[in-house]
Amino acid sequence: MLPFGNNYLYYIEIGLQVICAIHSVRRGTQGKWLWIIIFLPLVGSLIYIFSEMRPGRNLTTPKIDIGMVINPSANLKKLEDNLKFTDTFDNKIKLADAYLAAGQTERAIELYEKSLTGAFAENEHGIAQLATAYFQNERYPDTISTLKKIYNTHQFARSHVHVLYARALELTGNTEAAEHEFKLMKGRYSNFEQRYEYGLFLERADRIEDAYAIFEQMLDEAPHLSSIERKSNRVWLSKAKEEMKRITV
Questions:
Q1: Would you give the DSSP letter of residue 60?
Q2: Sign, CA torsion 97/101/107/110
Q3: Contacts 24+ apart (CB under 8 A), 169-177
Q4: Residue 138 CB-density burial (10 A; 0-12 exposed, 13-18 middle, 19+ buried)
Q5: pLDDT tens digits, residue range 16-62?
Q6: Is the pTM of this model over 0.85?
Q7: Is 247 in contact with 208 (CB distance < 8 Å)?
Q8: Exposed/middle/buried for 227, CB within 10 Å: 0-12, 13-18, 19+?
Q9: CA 38-159-231 angle, 5° bins
Q10: What is the residue-wise DSSP string for 149-207?
Q11: Whose CA is closest to 197, among 234, 228, 239?
Q12: What pLDDT shows up at residue 49?
């Protein structure tokens, strides 16, 4: 019989494998991750947790800046002064992000474009933010061409900017390609923002029954989510519920 300590570690390994496997299957990534989780018991689970379950892994995850909330003008002035004093990529991006958050999209675009050159030309955060600014300024072709630069990155598939990519395709008349992108984001028990937006896309195409089915599925999944998952997706579940009340089938 194994000592108690070894048994304890064994059960931890098995527990982690089960949690990671369920999480992966729910998100439709089992083809990529399941063999890693199974054949590298502890290491595979830890790699999966770090890559797929840790907070803030998505592109352009918003960070709450208390200074920006309390006194946005003073915060912008501080960031502008920082850039004047030290002209670095990091300071440019921080100021551009602040301009974007403050609704000064033209200034944000100008600064992102100046920043994304040379060694920083492929910076994923900067590219995603620039595309967001383009979208807000209704520069949809620029949104598409910019996001193509990070389309094949690991984080893009489930990011908010993937929704913007699909919307930009729709708004430039390429509805077939737009629907293809929305379908790529249709993982069960996940991607609630993306699926909600797909439902709205279907509504705009007068496919009301299909839209209703999307919203209904989202709400059917809600009771099976963890408390953390329900909390993080509360907004989209609530919006889906409202849409179901609003549309008729």
A1: T
A2: positive
A3: 169/144, 170/201, 170/204, 171/140, 172/140, 172/141, 172/144, 175/205
A4: exposed
A5: 778 887 777 655 565 667 767 777 767 777 887 777 765 445 555 44
A6: no
A7: yes
A8: exposed
A9: 80
A10: TSTTSTTGGGSHHHHHHHHHHHHTT-HHHHHHHHHHT--TTS-HHHHHHHHHHHHHTT-
A11: 239
A12: 78
Architecture of the domain spanning 59-176: Alpha Horseshoe (1.25)
What is the Cα–Cα distance from 238 to 196, expressed in whole angstroms? 10
Residue located via tokens 């709205």: 200
Sorted by where each begins, the domain ranges of the chain are 4-53, 59-176, 186-249
For 28, phi then psi, to 5°, come to 70, 20
Interatomic CA distance for residues 44 and 48, integer angstroms: 6
Q: Which residues contact 22 (CB under 8 A, 6 or more apart)?
A: none
What b/e string do you get for 2-26 counting C-beta neighbours within 10 Å, with b at 16 or more? eeeeeeeeeeeeeebbeebbebbeb
Taking residue 128's Cβ as centre, other Cβ atoms within 10 Å add up to: 26
Distances (CA, A) of 2 to 8, 10, 40: 10, 10, 21
The answer to whether the CB of 18 falls within 8 A of the CB of 27 is no
Residue type, 52: E
The string of pLDDT tens digits covering residues 141-189 is 999 999 999 999 988 988 999 999 999 999 999 999 999 999 999 888 8
Task: Specify whether the CB–CB gap between 159 and 60 falls below 8 A.
Answer: yes
CB atoms within 10 A of CB 131: 27
